From TrEMBL:
<dbReference type="GO" id="GO:0016829">
    <property type="term" value="F:lyase activity"/>
</dbReference>
<dbReference type="InterPro" id="IPR023805">
    <property type="entry name" value="Uncharacterised_Spl-rel"/>
</dbReference>
<keyword id="KW-0456">Lyase</keyword>
<dbReference type="Pfam" id="PF20903">
    <property type="entry name" value="SPL"/>
</dbReference>
<feature type="region of interest" description="Disordered">
    <location>
        <begin position="1"/>
        <end position="38"/>
    </location>
</feature>
<protein>
    <submittedName>
        <fullName>Spore photoproduct lyase family protein</fullName>
    </submittedName>
</protein>
<feature type="compositionally biased region" description="Low complexity">
    <location>
        <begin position="14"/>
        <end position="29"/>
    </location>
</feature>
<dbReference type="InterPro" id="IPR049539">
    <property type="entry name" value="SPL"/>
</dbReference>
Length: 393
C-alpha cells in the first residue's frame, strides 16, 4: 500500500477541528459518576510527589491543570524535558524504578510535531501527547530514549498537536484503497510511546484527542492499552477511536505486566468500550515463547471466545506481535526484576541485530519465529475463528 509522504507541519494552515474540543473527563461524568481518576485506585497508581516542568509547560493551561491536580507535588523547573539529571538514564534509578514511574511526572512541550508513516498497525504514527508510562512492563521499549527508568512526560501543548494532526488528515483526502489498518479510514496511532488510558488519569490530553477525531470522518485514532480506565467510557468517541486491548496469558502477564490491569479485566471491559462508542480490537502481544506457551495461548483464545459477546466479536480484529527485547533493557531488568528475564532473555532462541541508534535488539530467530507465528495463526483460526488477524510479525 502506497502512503503519501509525510509532510511537514504548516502553522499557517487553519486549525482543523480545534473547535471540536469538548470537556474532558475531569469531575463527574455525564452520568453523574465521580471520575475514576479521583479514586483511591487511581491515586495509588499515581501518587505524584514531584513534577519536573519546563517553564512554558508549567505556565500553559494544561500544565496548570496538571499541577493543580497534584497539590502535594513539588514542582521543579527544568530547562528541557529531555535528559533531566537524576531522573533520566538508568544509573541510580534501577532500584527505585517502579516508584519513580508513579511518583514523578514531567511536563514539556512538543516543539515540532511530526507524523510518520507506519503501514502495519496504523497508517500513520501521530505525534503522541506523552511519552513514558506509569506502568512498568518488563519488555516495554517505550522509555528507551530517556533511559529505562523514566516516568510519564506529558506534552502540554495539546492544541498544537491536534492542529498538526488535523492538517495532516486534511492533506490526505479520503482513503481510497482498503488496507490491513482499516478498510475506510486513515488510522493514526496516538499512543506509540505511552498508554493513553493512563495519560487520562493525569489530564485531558486523551479526551481532547478522542473528541478531535470524532470530527474527522476520513480518519480514526488508535491506541493500545493495558489499563482499564472507566473515565474513557464517558468520552463519546462515535466510532472514531479504536482501543486495542493488549492481552497475553494471565500467568505471563502477572510476571511481566507490572502495574497494569489484570488481563481478565481488560477482556471484560471490551463490551463496555464498544457500547460506549469505541471500536475494540486486541493486541495479542507480546508473544513470549517459553515452555507451555502454546497451551497458555490456546486457553487465552478459548477464554476470549467464551467471554466476549457476539457484538464485540463481529467487529474485532487483532495484531500478533512476537516479543522483541534489548540488551540494555535486559541488564536493567536484572537489577529489579530478574525473574522476568528468565523468560524474556533466551539467547538459545533469539538472534540479535544492532539498530540504527546502536542498541542491540534481540528477536526470535527466523525459522523459530516463523513457526511460532504460524502456530499462533492456526490456533486463532481454530479457537477464535471470528478474530481477524490484521497482521502478525
Ligand atoms: S503499558 Fe505499554 S507503555 Fe506502559 S509500560 Fe506497559 S508496554 Fe510500556
Amino acid at each position: 500500500m502506497r502512503h503519501p509522504s509525510t509532510t511537514s507541519d504548516d502553522d499557517s494552515d487553519a486549525l482543523f477541528g480545534l473547535d471540536a474540543l469538548g470537556p474532558g473527563p475531569a469531575g463527574p461524568d455525564t452520568r453523574g459518576r465521580p471520575s475514576f481518576r479521583d479514586s483511591d485506585t487511581a491515586r495509588r497508581l499515581l501518587p505524584v510527589r514531584e513534577i519536573h516542568a519546563e517553564p512554558a509547560a508549567a505556565a500553559s493551561p494544561r500544565g496548570r491543570q496538571i499541577i493543580a491536580r497534584f497539590p502535594e507535588a513539588r514542582v521543579v523547573e527544568v530547562a528541557s524535558h529531555w535528559r533531566i539529571p537524576g531522573l533520566h538514564g538508568n544509573e541510580g534509578n534501577i532500584a527505585r524504578w517502579v516508584r519513580v514511574k508513579g511518583e514523578t511526572l514531567v511536563l514539556g512541550e512538543r516543539k515540532s510535531p511530526r507524523t510518520r508513516p507506519n503501514g502495519r498497525s496504523a497508517d500513520w504514527i501521530a505525534p503522541g501527547a506523552s511519552n513514558g508510562c506509569a506502568m512498568a512492563c518488563a519488555y516495554c521499549y517505550v522509555p528507551r530514549r530517556k533511559g529505562y527508568a523514566n516516568p510519564v512526560t506529558v506534552f502540554t501543548n495539546i492544541d498544537r498537536i491536534i492542529g498538526h494532526i488535523g492538517r495532516h488528515i486534511a492533506r490526505q483526502g479520503p482513503k481510497t484503497e482498503p488496507n490491513q489498518c482499516d478498510p475506510e479510514a486513515w488510522v493514526y496511532d496516538i499512543g506509540e510511546n505511552g498508554d493513553c488510558s493512563v495519560d487520562a488519569l493525569i489530564c485531558d490530553n486523551t479526551a481532547d484527542l478522542v473528541h478531535a477525531f470524532r470530527q474527522w470522518p476520513t480518519a480514526k485514532a488508535s491506541f493500545a492499552t493495558k489499563f482499564v480506565n472507566p473515565d474513557l467510557l464517558a468520552l463519546d468517541p462515535r466510532g472514531r477511536t479504536r482501543v486495542r486491548f493488549s492481552v497475553m496469558p494471565p500467568e505471563d502477564s502477572r510476571l511481566l505486566d507490572v502495574r497494569t490491569s489484570p488481563v481478565a479485566e481488560r477482556i471484560a471491559a471490551a463490551a463496555d468500550f464498544l457500547d460506549a462508542g469505541y471500536e475494540v480490537h486486541f493486541n495479542l502481544s507480546p508473544v513470549v515463547v517459553r515452555p507451555g506457551w502454546e497451551e497458555a495461548w490456546g486457553e487465552l483464545l478459548d477464554r476470549l471466545d467464551d467471554v466476549l459477546p457476539a457484538r464485540v466479536k463481529r467487529q474485532a480484529a487483532a495484531e500478533v506481535i512476537m516479543l522483541t527485547h534489548n540488551r540494555e533493557l535486559h541488564e536493567v531488568n536484572l537489577g529489579w526484576h530478574p525473574r522476568a528475564e528468565e523468560v524474556l532473555w533466551r539467547p538459545d532462541l533469539q538472534e540479535s541485530k544492532v539498530s540504527e541508534n546502536g542498541a542491540l535488539n534481540v528477536r526470535y530467530a527466523g525459522a523459530a519465529k516463523a513457526r511460532a507465528v504460524e502456530r499462533l495463526r492456526a490456533m486463532v483460526a481454530a479457537r477464535a475463528p471470528w478474530l481477524t488477524v490484521r497482521y502478525a510479525f
